[in-house]
Amino acid sequence: MPPTEINIGLLGAGVVGSGTLDVLWRRRERIAAAVGCPLEVRRVLVRDPGRPRPVAIPAGLLTTDPSAILEDPAIPIVVELMGGIEPAHGYIAAALRAGKHVVTANKDVIATYGYELFRLANDRGVNLFFEGSVGGGIPVVTTLRHGLVANQVGAIQAIINGTTNYILTAMEQDRDYADALREAQQLGYAEANPRNDVEGIDAAYKLAILSTLAFRSEVRPIDVRHFGITRLQAKDFRYAAEMGYVIKLIAASRLLDGQIEAGVYPALLPRTHHLASVKGVFNAILIDGDQIDTLMLYGRGAGAQPTASAVVADICTVARDLIRGVVDRIDLSGQPRPVVDFDDTESRYYIRMQVADQPGVLAQIARVLGDGRISIASVIQKETDETARSAELVIMTHAAQHRGVVAALEAIGHLAVVRDISNVLRVLR
Amino acid sequence: MPPTEINIGLLGAGVVGSGTLDVLWRRRERIAAAVGCPLEVRRVLVRDPGRPRPVAIPAGLLTTDPSAILEDPAIPIVVELMGGIEPAHGYIAAALRAGKHVVTANKDVIATYGYELFRLANDRGVNLFFEGSVGGGIPVVTTLRHGLVANQVGAIQAIINGTTNYILTAMEQDRDYADALREAQQLGYAEANPRNDVEGIDAAYKLAILSTLAFRSEVRPIDVRHFGITRLQAKDFRYAAEMGYVIKLIAASRLLDGQIEAGVYPALLPRTHHLASVKGVFNAILIDGDQIDTLMLYGRGAGAQPTASAVVADICTVARDLIRGVVDRIDLSGQPRPVVDFDDTESRYYIRMQVADQPGVLAQIARVLGDGRISIASVIQKETDETARSAELVIMTHAAQHRGVVAALEAIGHLAVVRDISNVLRVLR
């Protein structure tokens, strides 16, 4: 006999929380049919009950006391949509310890405390679902957890931050960074303090989650080196276009010789690359598996409705499991694999610098690169400022170790003929 | 206590069957970890035990007697990879009736007998999984069944036949149809008798499955009108390109005023359309949902390894459910919706015809279209054969009903000045 209803406690009623309530209420009958019984939102934890919200929440549901949810034995499913690490992490852990199932869209908590929480959930015999933590409405967590079980995943390349992709798409149209950022802020795509997005931190957290699932070995945010997009200029996009490339903020990880490489960085992608045509706030995740070859999942990576879609799908699965008395244990049987120091990883590089417009400059620079065993694939040199006798030099290298490139650029920066090293970007195939 | 092993009976050891055996054996330990106990292939039904296969199957496993699997109480999971409607359909039904769980990649059976088999599986309390029946390694069935539960899906547009997409991609490079088909045959992408693919039949079956899941109402292959690619010429691709379009074989369905529209047809897509850049044998499924907006899943839609990836993922889920004693019932609670007669559906159209190169021809044709309330969006007229005084006319219409376009073209075909109506294609946005 299925229960007559299943109670849900919601932590947080911001943008995604309100969107989730909206769907749970608007699709009530359909969800009941899918689950096997109706879902009832019993309590909603908020900071300020008086605050107006996108969806009208009956006052009787609101509470400012987390224990009204975490300690209510009549609530078997807790949905955490507060965001941020604490107190969300503490609440999730408390709910799991109390034997409650948890659905969350919190990338910070899952990226930082994922393994600890996975173990806790498995120990307590409860479900912990987190599809909404990466890629909004894109079902990438489920796909990695279950759909690709027959595969050895070899690599992930993703655009998983909509804010930066919006800015980069605008810059492709010759807009400058500050202007594109301002527009993203006006449209609500970027926050007043955009650091988390534009420095690649948000993407690094999401990549940590995806890599942990893909390679079945814990990858923490601290393992993912991140580089931002703030140094990019419209001219980088012009040079890239001239050579057949676009520039995207790429979150990439791969398995190489049994070790994991992971990083977030702006990169040149060939115009024919699957991720090259991902525009605006859209996200896309490209997964290489030894059985499927290439799989790409593309969609809206953020926003109330897409994220609520993922959260509600998770709630339905957890509720069905609850009725049937089963749990979808998180598979932690993967062999632990070391994460390589980013300095030891290899890539081709794009280097743009301002140099004195005089004979022998390129020779000096080429010598330093050669001493570092970095070989040059191509060079573009343009006179930029005749009166200052300054020229712009764009060098594309063959594959070289990050550490070596950093060291060579340090030495090149000391050359008298080099005025500024403006930008260093990875170049992907 | 989990069982010490779970026995599997495999029906069919062709390309996908052999690929599935290969993964089950090669990934044995990993699969056991994911499931909770090892999976044991107990019997493999084949027509000819002596035939050489891509994977070596111990002779003791082979049988030519279906009852050795269907009637063996020690085999709780049957994996059907024979293809074709009968005897596969009968075997699947027999397995379900015997209380066995079934995994299949058989699009013909699921498209034709899906609802009947779904009901049978639900009645018997067993699982019926079919991720491999559409889109090879692309997890579209799972996504539609579970990932999008919070959404009202409004439309699907898909490239789900790799053979035709390979041919059309070649034709985009100015190759003619016969030449491109021959190449596809040589590469093993097209069969000696390519009818099923090039007439859009294969895609219609797959669209029936996707639409049934998306709109939660039975859509049968017979409900899906299909048009093939055999009348396309390289010049159609040139005209399309001139106007900013590519040509793809599109499987499309949508919900309009509570009714379902579904069809498979070659169509002009704007070059910026998400499906326009899908090349070669790759597949892509674009899903519009009211919560997620747009979701695209892209990957290899056929082949032994990608399909085996989907089949093994299904086997693992079914085996986990079996251990836990639960079943993933197929939700058949959706409200039945009628499927609209394709003749009543609307689209913009591209019409290419050969006409006499003399004054007043366009006026005569325009009058017939006008009488049918079909308005012209643009015209390209080119002189093609000076001695025959023949010209080629390409007309793009505004949205018009299929029935009206067919009737108007019938009348236009009777005009003395019209030599041939060479091609009629839908034009999508």
Question: How would you characterize this protein structure?
Answer:
2 copies of one chain form a homodimer. With 429 residues, chain A is an alpha/beta fold. Chain A folds into 3 domains: 6-136 and 304-324, Rossmann fold (3-Layer(aba) Sandwich); 140-300, Dihydrodipicolinate Reductase, domain 2, CATH 3.30.360; 345-427, Alpha-Beta Plaits. Helix content of chain A is 36%, strand content 27%. Chain A contains 14 helices and 17 strands. Chain A has helices at 15-26, 28-35, 67-70, 88-97, 107-124, 140-147, 162-172, 177-186, 195-198, 201-215, 234-242, 304-324, 361-371, 402-413; strands spanning 6-11, 39-45, 62-63, 77-80, 101-104, 128-129, 153-159, 225-226, 245-256, 259-270, 282-289, 293-300, 346-356, 376-385, 390-397, 400-401, 418-427. In chain A, strands 7, 8, 9, 10, 11, 12, 13, 14, 15, 16 and 17 form an 11-stranded mixed beta sheet that branches. In chain A, helix 1 crosses helix 12 (304-324), helix 5 packs parallel to helix 10 (201-215) and helix 7 (162-172) crosses helix 8. Chain A is elongated, with a radius of gyration of 24 Å. At the A-B interface, helix 2, helix 6, strand 12 and helix 12 of A face helix 2, helix 6, strand 12 and helix 12 of B.
Oligomer: homodimer
- How far the N terminus sits from the C terminus of chain A, by CA atoms, comes to 56 Å
Mean pLDDT of chain A: 95
Largest sheet of chain A: 11 strands, mixed
Specify the overall morphology of chain A.
elongated
DSSP strand (E) fraction of chain A?
Answer: 25-35%
How many helices of chain A does DSSP assign?
14
Question: Approximately how much helix is present in the residues of chain A?
Answer: 25-40%
Structural class of chain A: alpha/beta
What's the alpha carbon Rg of chain A, rounded to whole Å?
24 Å
What is the number of domains of chain A? 3
